[in-house]
Design brief:
Blueprint lengths: L2 E2 L2 E7 L1 E3 L10 E3 L2 H8 L3 E6 L14 E4 L21 H17 L3 E4 L1 H9 L3 E3 L2 H4 L14 E5 L4 H6 L4 E4 L6 E4 L4 E7 L4 E6 L5 E4 L8 H15 L4
């Protein structure tokens, strides 16, 4: 285990902005500070991983890896009434390659929103491109402010153990895409009341969990339980 002052070392993949939205006229790599704080609050040591860095040595010294929220995945058809904000192709391909290397090493992974969708698609899973059009019977999954909705979590899942729940939780919601098929080696472990997939988990010895919500924005009890559970899993590496 790689520790500095008894801290578990967690890498976070940076998000790439090539449009100049973050800083006009410049390509920028960035991370929401809430991810860093959430890991630090439970004793994690954070290392930032630049997008496009494919050298496997970047994973040396890490005890776990987080793929944070990000842009959309390209839709498979046109949606005239919806504007997609795509994650750059360089980001998607680099993150997928980083995820492959983590899986090869059995390095624990936590995927959040975009990160969960990355985990599914990297293993040939599929997405619902736009929930309102593809699942018109589903509820609203782009909730404003601090609004939460109910989900049910499989009681035998690692995630349920982290959260200390017997099957029920309330989470925030910021997405319009969703996992349809979780991909090879993953199983669905949580759904919203309308059936939309809310979490996936790797089958077998690898600890890899994806959540569709944003735990870094959740109230403190939920946030700390989830990130503390992840760090505990990372701490069992060696």
């Amino acid at each position: 285990m790689s520790r500095v002052a008894d801290k578990i070392s967690i890498g976070i993949s940076l998000t790439l902005d090539k449009t100049g939205t973050v800083r006009e006229g410049r390509a920028t790599q960035y991370i929401d500070e809430l991810y860093i704080r959430s890991l630090q609050d439970v004793g994690g040591l954070v290392r930032l991983i630049p997008t496009g860095s494919l050298d496997e040595e970047l994973l040396d010294g890490l005890d776990g890896l987080v793929f944070p929220g990000g842009g959309d995945f390209p839709p498979s058809k046109k949606y005239p009434l919806e504007e997609f904000v795509l994650a750059p192709p360089e980001q998607r391909s680099a993150d997928a390659e980083l995820l492959k290397k983590a899986r090869k090493r059995k390095l624990p992974v936590l995927g959040i929103c975009y990160g969960m969708q990355l985990m599914a698609t990297e293993r040939s899973g599929t997405l619902f491109d736009h929930i309102p059009a593809d699942l018109p019977e589903a509820g609203n999954h782009k909730l404003n402010g601090n609004k939460l909705h109910d989900i049910f979590i499989e009681s035998d899942s690692v995630l349920a153990r982290w959260l200390g729940t017997h099957g029920h939780a309330q989470v925030n919601s910021r997405h319009h895409q969703a996992v349809r098929d979780p991909g090879k080696g993953f199983r669905i472990i949580a759904r919203a009341l309308d059936g939309v997939v809310e979490a996936i988990e790797a089958e077998g010895p690898w600890t890899a969990i994806g959540v569709q919500w944003h735990p870094e924005e959740m109230p403190e009890p939920h946030r700390k339980k989830l990130f503390r559970g992840f760090l505990a899993a990372c701490g069992r590496l060696n």
